[in-house]
Design brief:
Pfam families: Thioredoxin_8 (PF13905). InterPro entries: Thioredoxin-like_fold (IPR012336), Thioredoxin-like_sf (IPR036249). By secondary structure, the chain is α/β, with parallel strands linked by helices. The protein has one domain: Glutaredoxin (3-Layer(aba) Sandwich). It has a 5-stranded mixed sheet, covered by helices on one side. Strands 1-2 form a two-stranded antiparallel sheet. It is globular, with a radius of gyration of 13 Å. It starts with a strand and ends with a helix.
Amino acid sequence: MTWEENGERKSLSSLSGASKYLLIFWSSTCSHCLNEIPGLYDELKNIKDTEVLAVGLEDGLENWKKTIPRLADFHHAIALEKWDSPYVQTFAIQQTPTYFILDENKRILDRPESAEKVLEYLKKH
């Protein structure tokens, strides 16, 4: 998984410095995402040593570009093919948002069903 961030090419495997990573597949046109993720964003500020990569499954750039400044501390990638994105099949994504908690080596530790479950997991571990 690679993306462009501040003019630099980034990849999930190149992220370092955290003991856990949260991978979120979402969409800027998903009302459930827009209701749930900002609250998660605020709560994550109290959880140390976790970095977030938010992958927007999008049809276009406009809404995504308007939304990501509100989640400025996240790394942001975009998949313009939305449901036809290879990530959808690779990660078996059936809805947005979909969450994965990864360890420092980017191995999947958990796939929580909600933002609440994400926070529960991160606070326990």
